[in-house]
Amino acid sequence: MPTTYRRVATRFVPSVALLATLATAACAADTSTPLTGRQKAVQSRSDSVAMKNCAAQCTGDIDGAKYTIKLPQKWNGTLLLYSHGYRFAAPAPPTFSAVETNAQVTSTDSDGSGSDELSQKLLSEGYALAGSSYKSNGWAVGDGVSAGEQLHDKFVSLVGKPNRTYVWGDSLGGLITQIIAEKNPAWVDGAAPMCGAVAGPNYNFDVALDVAFAVKALVDPQLKLTGYSSAEDAAANWTHAEKAVVKAASDISGGGTAKVLFIAALVNAPTATGTYDGHDVTSQVKARVEALLTALAFGTSGRYELEQRVGGDPSQNTDANYPARIDAAENQLISTVGGSVTKLESALASLPRVSADTAARTAIEKLGDTTGQLSAPTVTLHTEADPLVLVQNESVLAARTRVAGRSGQLVQLFIAPPATFSESTGAPYGAGHCNFSMGQRLGLISVLDNWVRRSAYPVQSGLVSAIGDGYAPVFAPGPWPGDEKG
Length: 486
Known about the structure:
The longest helix is centred in the middle third of the chain and has 30 residues, at 281-310. Strands 1-2-4-3-5-6-7-8 form an 8-stranded mixed sheet, with helices on both faces. Helix 7 packs across helix 8 (256-266). By secondary structure, the chain is an alpha/beta fold. The protein is globular and about 70 Å long. It is built from 15 helices and 8 strands. Strand 1 and strand 2 form a beta hairpin. Mean pLDDT is 92; it is low at 1-30. The protein starts with 15 loop residues before the first helix and ends in a 19-residue tail after the last helix. The protein has 2 domains: 16-22 and 37-200 and 368-485, Alpha/Beta hydrolase fold, catalytic domain (Rossmann fold, 3-Layer(aba) Sandwich), CATH 3.40.50.1820; 202-363, no CATH class. Keywords: Signal. InterPro entries: AB_hydrolase_fold.
């Protein structure tokens, strides 16, 4: 994302009639021009393509990153090249899980074995799978892009040249996926970023700063916003803030609940998460607490790693117009629980704004960002209620694609959660970060494959059939929170 901001419009949702027209037009295109060798391979209907068995070399290490290749019994000629999501460089909140360094070949492959149900299903359909870890954890966008590119080359040398290659990935891996696709039109034939941070680093870390800034101003004055001395210092700041946010959320009479709702409104935090369905105000408050604490994890531990990587704090809120982010409905809800938006805005204004380190802000962009220059069919998938990578990331990508004149190469799919679900079982899909069913992930690949291999532009009837329950054909994410920067 360039450091000069531009206004992001709500994503245009084409009508069913328009999609049908586009599909018909594609099928009716002039077929008199001879196909190139690559086009013939991409459109090949063969489901039994020759391949070499990489055997012991199907696992290994490339430039400090572990990789895994899984081959089907009969190859359809397609390589699915997977990029995994963000991994903390040190144990970090909210789970403080051990650091991971394993390769993954799909979203649900936990150890690189490909023994999970999703991987097994794709292998049974003839796809070859490949995935890699990155040589560093954290905001390792450059490392992730290099790992994907090198693994593609390794696959070609060990197994053979695919007829077509689709890149896909979750979360940070969704951003990496899109960058790989934009950089490598010579061999990427389709892209499927899932729950991707496709608005890039500065948009996403600026929002994380917005959350931390408001928490400091209204709930936890001791919270340090930048310049942590160590990973332990960053985690300790989160732990202290977590207690303050949870305590405030339950303090209706003292105004704490109103503060939590106000902070959430500043960043369009979803009213549902994977745990809470948001069916009433109590559930919505719980969901927003979960969303804010998730964002704070990246605003503390994630920020520490990022500052070490780029040599300073790349985030800023100097131009943020926070009052403009509170709409009438949010104002009313805050008032309902006894809060005054005017007083909260005044308290927020009393805290000095944060300016970015210019060199660090430039450095984070150089690690990699999307441009909208799509050269291959791209199908994104995002939950409507994502507490970590806001669904408005898709609005930013759509806007960049329109500016680049490549909107015809982009289809964006959204998954809605059920209206209600149990806290004990959680949402089956649609709410939570990267919370998709196996069928939805398989449907995504099917939609992309039909578009690339059979020139079948995705139309609503086909999408409903492929994606199934949860597909939200008329949903459109709004503008990015803080679009007043434009």
